[in-house]
Amino acid sequence: MLPGAIFTAPNATDGEYFRARAAELLPRRESLRRDAGLRGLVILFAGRLVESIKGVSSLIRACGRLERAGIPLTLLATGEGPDLEPYKRLCREEGLRDARFPGNLTHADLCRHYAVADVLVLPSRHETWGFVLNEA
Asked: What is the pLDDT of residues 84-100, one digit of tens each?
């Protein structure tokens, strides 16, 4: 093994912050969902909108299958990246009635999204570790 090939990487997620926000927001989950006009199953993706890494098209196609099976849902795809417009087009092609792309969010706004979501999906094609898993 080469010297320096192994190193310690600090955990870049402030777990205390996210736990405190969850404790505050989760009791208000239903009212937050109502206020946001969310419908059905709420599916969340949080990350960069880069197909070659994140594979969000697989998630959009899966949501399309659920919609066609009569399962109402809201897709929340947070973040920015070069594939935003192709993802919006694919949502239209898949017939998604409620697909939202709110862009990059502050930690406070992201916590609200975590609180209202039924499921977080991380369809990455490759990734060392998705910090959103720690946050959610």
From this structure: 999 999 999 999 999 99
pLDDT at 13: 80
> How far is the C-alpha of 47 from the C-alpha of 34, rounded, in Å?
24
Q: Which residues make Cβ contacts (< 8 Å) with residue 119, sequence separation at least 6?
A: 41, 42, 43, 44
3-state DSSP of the chain: CCCCCCCCCCCCCCHHHHHHHHHHHHHHHHHHHHHHCCCCEEEEEECCCCHHHHCHHHHHHHHHHHHHCCCCEEEEEECCCCCHHHHHHHHHHCCCCCEEEEECCCHHHHHHHHHHCCEECCCCCCCCCCHHHHHC
- The pLDDT, as a whole number, for residue 11 is 62
**What is this structure's pTM?**
0.89
> Burial code of 79-111, b = ≥16 C-beta within 10 A, e = fewer?
beeebbeebbebbeebebebbbbeeeeeeeebb
- The amino acid present at 24, given as its one-letter code, is E
